[in-house]
Amino acid sequence: MIALNIISPVFDPLKEFFRAILDWLNATGHLPWAWAIVVLTVIVRIAIVPLTVKQIHSMQSLQMHAPEMKEIQQRYKSDKQRQQQELMRFYKENNINPMASCLPMLAQFPIFIALFYVLRDFANEAKVPGNHLGDLSWLNIFPDISQGITKHWSGYLLLVIYVGSQVASTHFMSGSAQKSQRIMMMVLPFVILPFILTFPVGLLIYWATTNLWTVGQGLVTRTLIPKPQPPAKRTSRTPPAAEKKKEAQPRASQPARRVKRKKKGGRR
Questions:
Q1: Whose CB has fewer CB within 10 Å in the chain, the N or C terminal residue?
Q2: Which stretch, 60-69, 159-168, 177-186, 239-248, has highest mean pLDDT?
Q3: Distance of CA 214 to the CA centre of its chain
Q4: What is the pTM of this model?
């Protein structure tokens, strides 16, 4: 929390921007603050669709070239530095960006921090006598979304929804990761639970909503986009591409060659 207070001025413009959107959704759209956060989350996810498309293409490329990358890792498993160099060269040759899968999450991190400050302002404003923000509840169950999760039993219900959505979204987001990385990403939501318990409920609503969006996005992607097929494996009998191209070209027509036949029998 101390670190967040130190970097607060950096996020002030973004905080004011999202506060203006939430105020408009609440005043003009007549949405409770919790639903305004859900709509804000959908707006953010629509805005980062280009990054999401890059992420999907990158994941497909990684899946398609996974056998070749595994072969490089096995070939240079005793030399980690050479292994990394060869992998980076392979990424460059095949136009693969291994960091593209993290872009949507990195893009949402400043939004997450800015929303934290907005909810903190809600909590401060609610303490001022005569200052009424309206309905701050979540589904009329949790009394105040600017308060911590542990303030009401329904906060733990929302926490279960968050963890489940986080695990499900990780399943779709880490399809191209190694087994050890997938396990670590699956366990991470449980490891950071003590830290999450200090968050206001509004942040959990935002994060659970974006996770559910990711799950829906993964289901749609798997349905509409076929799984990429790995490239054909080369063998010792597989001719190089240049020879294949040469063989595929039609040979120029040449005049028929005349062959002289020997006459039967000798001279008399």
A1: C
A2: 159-168
A3: 8
A4: 0.73
